[in-house]
Design brief:
- This protein is of the alpha/beta class and about 475 residues long.
- The chain has three domains: about 90 residues, NAD(P)-binding Rossmann-like Domain (Rossmann fold, 3-Layer(aba) Sandwich); about 200 residues, UDP-N-acetylmuramoyl-L-alanine:D-glutamate ligase; about 150 residues, Protein-Tyrosine Phosphatase, Chain A (Alpha-Beta Complex), CATH 3.90.190.
- About 35% of the residues lie in helices and about 25% in strands.
- The chain is built from 15 helices and 21 strands.
- The longest helix has 16 residues.
- The radius of gyration is 23 Å and the shape is globular.
Length: about 475
């Protein structure tokens, strides 16, 4: 690891691409730490307005002069190296840091607890922050989504701990100076960075071995279970899972009224029951990881129960967006096959009465879909109707022949009887849903691109169609 940038005294920091979720969180925390922060982006947004209210001087458009007088300039990996502000900083000898390097500098200022893994990082981080805050530990946090009760995903608070998501997509997880971790699961993704699943596994193995303190890991995940057996040192290791041999175990799962309830045991003894306002087995696993870490921090189980019972979730995680003509609209961030399967599998608990589940999926990243489209073949089995639209690029370059149709073809090849529709354009997608949806339907839009605005667009179109009748 290269020498850490020192944030022990206030600095003048400029953030390129400050409107993005990752960089806006960093800008907010840097400001609350006492640094003088400026930023730039290409368009106005609610996030930009929120940063300005905190005192961040944001300019729209890129201007080399904004870095003059700065101690350091940081940018996300989405910003090209030829960016004029980065070039000006380099020319003037100003330190430039990647997002991972800046996050590492922030992590060095506190005892950092990182949540790592392919799925569940944001929800697990948010749950842990809620429990620790409820116990009076006042943790700081940098999370990949807004916590519903707070309306923000980052804050620099008075406690000694910092909770962060350790993102593996660009190897950030291996660059952070952390004292403890929760490792949720390991799944196929980010082959553009790792080239193979084996290299991804090796990266997580190195990560886990390097953590000096508490390591809370989910042994329902077969890859993590193997890693645990190979760890040279089990100091600080706590395992968790559902109906499995582990230190912290969840059992007797019940799902009703859009929530869940389960029994928690630790080291063979029953601690009690936990209730969540969240659906699905995947969220029970997230909660078990938080329970295990919280117990290691000395938080009482009674306190954990109370905090988890009040946790309202994270924006874009089974997010109820409205109802129209008896149709319920929900939006979710799920964009990988196992995430989609988990979310759709949670849509019908013992008290749900949807007549149909209509799943709308926006694939993400051309490079991801070029190597992973076939992996989506079996993830829509719990939907009655599947609608796929075209790929949201997320800054990746188009690849000849790579479209959302690859997902449709994979599903049809594996499950020919699936009712699946291919609606390439947004207009075509909205028109189809506006006319196809009927009372009793649950329409759940999924993806990590601009699909999140689809529920509003469809409800507006349905209103227009009624007005024209």
């Amino acid at each position: 690891m290269s020498a850490m940038f020192d944030l022990s005294t206030p600095r003048r920091v400029h953030v390129v691409g400050v409107g993005g979720p990752g960089m806006s969180a960093i800008a907010q925390v840097l400001t609350q730490m006492g640094n003088v922060v400026s930023g730039s982006d290409v368009r106005e947004s609610g996030v930009i307005e929120r940063l300005r209210a905190l005192g961040v001087a944001v300019t729209i458009g890129h201007d080399p002069r904004v870095v003059h007088g700065c101690d350091v300039v940081t940018a996300s990996s989405a910003i090209p190296q030829g960016n004029s502000e980065l070039h000006e900083a380099t020319t003037r000898g100003i330190t430039t840091l990647t997002r991972a390097q800046m996050l590492a500098a922030i992590c060095a200022a506190k005892e950092t607890i990182a949540v790592a893994g392919t799925h569940g990082k944001t929800t697990t981080s948010s749950m842990l922050m809620t429990v620790m805050a409820g116990a009076g530990l006042s943790p700081s946090f940098i999370i990949g989504g807004d916590v519903r009760e707070l309306g923000v995903g980052a804050a620099w608070n008075s406690g000694k701990h910092l909770i962060v998501e350790a993102d593996e997509s660009d190897g950030t997880h291996e660059q952070l100076p952390i004292s403890a971790t929760i490792l949720t699961n390991i799944d196929l993704d980010h082959l553009d960075h790792f080239q193979s699943f084996e290299r991804l596994l090796e990266s997580f193995s190195r990560y886990l071995s390097s953590v000096p303190g508490t390591k809370v890991v989910c042994v329902n995940d077969e890859h993590i279970a193997v890693m645990v057996k190979l760890l040279q040192s089990t100091v600080g290791l706590t395992t968790y899972g559902i109906d499995v041999d582990a230190d912290v175990v969840g059992s007797n799962l019940e799902f009703a009224h859009g929530g869940s309830r389960f029994t928690v045991s630790m080291n063979g003894g029953v601690l009690g029951e936990v209730s969540l306002r969240l659906r699905g087995r995947h969220n029970v696993l997230n909660a078990l990881g938080v329970i295990a870490m919280s117990m290691r921090l000395g938080i009482s189980f009674a306190h954990i129960q109370e905090s988890l019972a009040g946790f309202g979730g994270v924006v874009r995680r089974f997010d109820l967006r409205g109802t129209d003509g008896g149709v319920t609209f929900v939006d979710d961030y799920a964009h990988l096959p196992n995430e989609i399967a988990a979310v759709l599998g949670s849509c019908r608990d013992s008290t749900d009465s949807w007549k149909r589940i209509v799943a709308v999926f926006q694939p993400n990243r051309f490079n991801r879909m070029s190597v992973m489209s076939e992996a989506y073949a079996g993830c829509f089995l719990d939907a009655d109707v599947v609608v796929v639209t075209d790929i949201y690029s997320s800054g990746t370059a188009p690849i000849a022949g790579v479209t959302g149709k690859l997902v449709v073809d994979a599903v049809i090849a594996a499950h020919p009887s699936t009712h699946i529709e291919w609606k390439q354009s947004r207009i075509e997608l909205i028109e189809y849903l506006a006319t196809e949806l009927r009372a009793g339907d649950l329409c759940i839009s999924m993806g990590c691109g601009d699909i999140q605005s689809l529920p509003d667009e469809v409800m507006i179109r349905r209103s227009q169609m009624r007005g024209a009748q």
